[in-house]
Specification:
The chain is mainly alpha-helical and 150 residues long. It has helices at 2-16, 20-23, 32-43, 47-59, 64-72, 75-90, 108-112, 115-119, 143-146, and strands spanning 92-97, 100-105. Helices cover 55% and strands 8% of the residues. Strands 1-2 form a two-stranded antiparallel ribbon. It is globular, with a radius of gyration of 16 Å.
């Protein structure tokens, strides 16, 4: 189970462009990765194969770019990976039904932890870790939010 979680975090980092230790820090009182992992494994029947493919490509020394391209090139993995990207960025699970797509917010916690807020260098209304008056200062570079310097 721990290896699957490590692969889940690694795959999530590859797909989102965020550093693994940014989306799943060592000290993590919120632990959103567990909520997302539970949803992903409950909804995606071939999740184990996707995580194994990630692990294999990583063990072969592939770059994040190569891993992402290889996994998304597999037809059976593309939609689940897109759903995972959407989950990390929005905190909601998207389901496609024919030409319609609907989404469902997992929880209030998932909403506040959506990566879209970090990309926007913002925070959801009513929930902020920033001190009052933070807006008077220039925001950090985007890499300060994503953990990636690419």
């Amino acid at each position: 189970m721990e290896q699957q979680m490590n692969n889940f975090v690694g795959l999530s980092a590859v797909l989102t462009g965020f550093a693994a230790d940014t989306i799943a820090p060592n000290i993590d009182p919120i632990n959103i990765k567990a909520e997302y992992f539970t949803k992903f494994t409950a909804e995606i029947s071939n999740y184990a194969a996707i995580l194994s493919a990630y692990e294999l490509l990583k063990s072969q020394g592939k770059t994040d770019q190569e891993i992402g391209e290889a996994i998304l090139a597999i037809a059976d993995y593309e939609m689940p990976c897109r759903q995972l990207i959407f989950l990390w960025y929005s905190g909601a699970w998207a389901t496609a039904n024919g030409s319609m797509t609907s989404s469902e917010m997992l929880s209030a916690k998932s909403y506040t932890q959506g990566l879209a807020w970090q990309v926007m260098q913002s925070h959801p209304m009513g929930d902020s870790n920033y001190r009052y008056g933070y807006w008077a200062n220039e925001p950090a570079d985007l890499s300060g939010y994503t953990g990636n310097n690419n």
